[in-house]
Write a structure and sequence with these properties.
The complex is a heterodimer of chains A (110) and B (119).
Chain A: E1 9-12, E2 18-23, E3 35-39, E4 46-49, E5 63-68, E6 71-76, E7 85-93, E8 98-101, E9 105-109
Parallel strand pairs in A: 1-9
Antiparallel strand pairs in A: 2-6, 3-4, 3-7, 5-6, 7-8, 7-9
Chain B: E1 3-7, E2 10-12, E3 18-25, E4 34-39, E5 45-51, E6 57-59, E7 67-72, E8 77-82, E9 91-97, E10 113-117
Parallel strand pairs in B: 2-10
Antiparallel strand pairs in B: 1-3, 3-8, 4-5, 4-9, 5-6, 7-8, 9-10
The chains are: A mainly beta (110), B mainly beta (119).
């Protein structure tokens, strides 16, 4: 049971938009920044979004993040087959005094 | 270019010990927090431990008292000392630059080293 809650899967057709939610609590998302990670099949994860809504260099602007209260959201627009991957949200939890991840969301391009 | 190369994984019996290493290059290692994250086969990511620039350490409850994160800044190397291993510790262990509690997130990730706990 992950501290952060994500839907197990989302899907959409190429070119469409998917939204992945990440629900937490006041001790994590509610008080700390959220980061998002993409894990393509058979590879190590990589950072997609940091500080709730910032993209590292090289990450397309099709990926965007937001946060409101104790929840965060990752949007992927203009969906491509290469976006098929597992996506994880992460944050620090001040009550646990440790890092926490969501359970991961599998994105499928129909 | 930042590079993180993990080593030290392998097959170990329940109750055994193992030391993972992560050789870092391409950045000023001593100025950066570092993190271990693991992923059990077919499962999601689990934060294991982090160490700050000044050596402050943080551990997941699931490994507290059994795992110790440390660093040797003179050798640009991160370690994870693992004791009293159980089958639930079987996973791919990633070394990652940064601290997940930091604004910048954690990145990049190494390729991981596989730890298998089995009799």
């Amino acid at each position: 049971q992950s501290v952060l809650t994500q839907p197990p899967s989302v899907s959409a057709a190429p070119g469409q938009k998917v939204t992945i939610s990440c629900s937490g609590a006041s001790s994590n998302i509610g008080s700390k920044t959220v980061s998002w990670y993409q894990q393509l099949p058979g590879t190590a994860p990589r950072l997609l979004i940091y500080d709730n809504n910032k993209r590292p260099s090289g990450i397309p602007d099709r990926f965007s993040g937001s946060k409101s209260g104790t929840s965060a959201t990752l949007d992927i627009t203009g969906l491509q087959t290469g976006d098929e991957a597992d996506y994880y949200c992460g944050a620090w939890d001040i009550r646990l005094n440790g890092g926490v991840f969501g359970g991961g969301t599998k994105v499928t391009v129909l | 270019e930042v590079q993180l190369l993990e080593s030290g994984g392998g097959l170990v019996q329940p109750g055994g010990s193992l030391r993972l290493s992560c050789a870092a290059s391409g950045f000023t290692f001593s100025s950066v927090a570092m993190t271990w994250v693991r992923q059990a086969p077919g499962k999601g990511l689990e934060w294991v431990a982090s160490i700050g620039e000044s050596g402050d350490t943080y551990n997941a409850d699931s490994v507290k008292g059994r795992f110790t994160i440390s660093r040797d800044n003179s050798k640009d190397t991160l370690f994870l000392h693992m004791h009293s291993l159980g089958v639930e510790d079987t996973a791919l262990y990633y070394c990652v630059k940064g601290g997940i509690g930091r604004v910048q997130g954690i990145d990049p990730w190494g390729q991981g080293t596989l730890v298998t706990v089995s009799s």
